[in-house]
Structures are given as structure tokens and as C-alpha cells.
Amino acid sequence: ASQWSMLNTTNRADISAPMAWRMGTGGRDSDGNEIVVAVVDGGADMTHPDLQNNIWVNSGEVPGNGIDDDANGYIDDVNGWNAFQNNGRIPSGSHGTHVTGIVGAHGDNGTGVAGVNWNVKVMEVAGSSGTTSIIAVAYGYVLKQKQLWLESGGTKGANVVATNSSFGVDCANCASGSFPVWND
Q: For 40-58, what is the mean pLDDT?
């Protein structure tokens, strides 16, 4: 009832999620591949009960051993990447937790809220910034994971099908300064 954006019968200012959920609550694409959405934000609560089962896991990485086990160029990137610190430690962030919940909080479990996709895997990338170099590192990580997935036939990287960044530079002219990198 508190998620008016999913279903709002008063003024239809919603996404009509219940109609989509009748067709499926996600998790896999039509070929059976795990769907991954990258959330580029300030970090997220990785232990939140509505999120923890939907956080993407890089199965080729051993947590906390200081080694790039899967040889993807990133050390200990178990759940994503921290572009601020250039490491795999995802900070906890309230806005990123909220956004991750919108994308993929586990639904119909009697806890908290329901995400748009109840079974999606969410790759956390800490990188919400007005600094172009941080944005480039954050999206470089996401791009690398998709490229690895494509090049390996799905055995490495991640099947990233969408990204979300709910931040930006207010009134920025993306054709000026270093902002074209954001568009690219």
C-alpha cells in the first residue's frame, strides 16, 4: 500500500507493476540467463533482508583475499566495485539502498517493499559523483563485466541488461567540459 509508484488507482501515476508481475517476477531472460542490473550510486546496505538474496555475486572471486581470482582486472570485486576507493568494498548508503530496493527488493515475502523485479541480481557500484573520473571508473567496471560475459559465452563477468544512476549535475550541459564522457 505504501508503494504508490507500483500501483496507484487514483490518478494512474504508476508503472502498473502488478500487471507485469502476473506475467513474471523476473530473474532470467528468455534464454535462461541471470539478469543483472548495475546500480551506480553511493553504496547500499548489503545485509538488508529485502536485498541480500538479490545482490549480484561474482562467483569467480574469493572474498577478502587480496587477489584478482577471476583475472578480470579487479581485486575482490565480489558484489561490484567502489569507484571512490578503487576496491571491492561496497560502502553502505541510504540512497543506494533505496534505489536498489526499487530495482530489486525481493517481493511477496512479507518484509519491507517489493522491487520492480523480485529476483533480479543487482550489481552495486559506488560511484555517484560530480567528478567525471569517478563516473568513468564506475561505468568502466560495468562495461568490463558485460564485455567479459559476452566474450566468455556467459561464464565470466555479468549479464548486465540495464544500469541506474539517479544522480547528476543539476542543469549540466553534457556537451560542455568533461561531461561528454558521461554520455559516452
A: 96
